[in-house]
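seq as requested:
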Amino acid sequence: MVLKRLLCTQMNKKVLITGITGQDGAYISEFLLKKGYSVHGLVRRTSSKPSNLWRLDKVGVMGKVNLIEGDLTDQTSITNAVKEADPDELYNLGAQSFVAHSWKSPTYTADVTGIGVVRILEAIRNHNPGIRFYQASSSEQFGKAESLPLNEKSPFHPRSPYACAKVFAHYSCINYRESYNIFATSGILFNHESPLRGIEFVTKKITDGVAKIHLGLAKKICLGNLEAKRDWGHSEDYVHAMWLMLQQKEPDDYVIATNESHSVREFVE
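struct tokens:
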């Protein structure tokens, strides 16, 4: 799908962001504050510690966003957060987002990443069906792709508990869109990186390893399959795309990617 670009104007709108302490959460907070939004962010009690808020501090939004404690596994806290923030837009960036960990905790991943989305949609339906909702879908949903290039109509073939949970969440959005006329849009995002990436991701492992070698703190970087290929974009570009999705006249689903793939070996080089 093609996103229509809009002029940057002061919006004076309210927004609720789940996963606000993550890479995308920090960047979209910064982006929306510049547009004049009142920004509220859902944080778990364990994520509200200063050590987990470093990304918000890094982009300069600490003290400018209102943090609300809640948990995607708890319907009451989600409902209360939606009531408190009373948002015009809601961006769901919260999830158990590590593919490898999803194999170790499949039911937890399904609860947070999958059913957590239904909890949000239910809160929207009961509080204000006019809230525009963005769901962070994932390229992992395609899994074992049958043909290339991929697009919004390509079939899903998830290959991990994480991907299965994301597929469930994706179709839940479509179901609520068609059944309750909720403006539910999903962005099927390919890999996107930035200096705010967590150390669990290969891109940060590489850049962190290179920095340590440069400083004389290490002599090598230990990685897995160097021939694995990924489509890598930048988080700041992708959160702009998220916002554009919710500014369209009708809700839809969009693939966001650079249309270029590069191997891990290339990245290291």
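The longest strand covers residues 132-138.
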